């Protein structure tokens, strides 16, 4: 098991165990001990942890973490707001396109119905003309002198 120290810890001297102690390197960001003799002594110590993620933070590190968390939350809120505005804009455009298409289809149906109604009216008028009684042909005028008998 490896032990990770808070960044403020720079050395560890175990005491009455067969180990000479450990020092943090000058360029090391974290003090890490990988010593089977010392690791059991560090269990439960508030300045040490068993993973880098659980290593305790110093005061300045805590403030920096809070600042970054606040920045991340603000960025996420801004992103979410922009995303929703874009989404709503796209939805409105899609709805308007659907409405325009529906209006175009309704106009087309209306025009088609008018054409069909006019055709039906013309057919009915033609049928009425065909069914109407035809006037008798006019005959030649009759003369008054038809076989005059006296």
Features:
mainly alpha; rod-shaped
Task: Please provide a brief summary of the model.
With 150 residues, this protein is mostly helical.
Rounded average pLDDT? 86
The run of helices and strands is EEEEHEH
Number of strands: 5
**What spatial form do the alpha-carbon principal axes imply?**
rod-shaped
Strand order of the largest sheet: 4-1-5
Main sheet summary: 3 strands, antiparallel
Radius of gyration: 51 Å
Tell me the number of helical segments per DSSP (H or I, 4 or more residues long). Answer: 2
Q: Which spans have pLDDT < 50 for at least 5 consecutive residues? A: none
Give the helix proportion (percent range): 40-55%
Supply the helix-strand structural class: mainly alpha
Task: Tell me what the structure shows.
Helices cover 51% and strands 7% of the residues. By secondary structure, the protein is mainly α. The chain has a domain at 1-56. The chain is rod-shaped and about 165 Å long. Residues 141-150 have a biased composition (Basic residues). Residues 127-140 have a biased composition (Low complexity). Residues 104-126 have a biased composition (Basic and acidic residues).
Helices, strands, pairings?
Layout: E1 3-5, E2 11-12, E3 22-23, E4 32-33, H1 39-42, E5 48-49, H2 59-131
Antiparallel strand pairs: 1-4, 1-5, 2-3
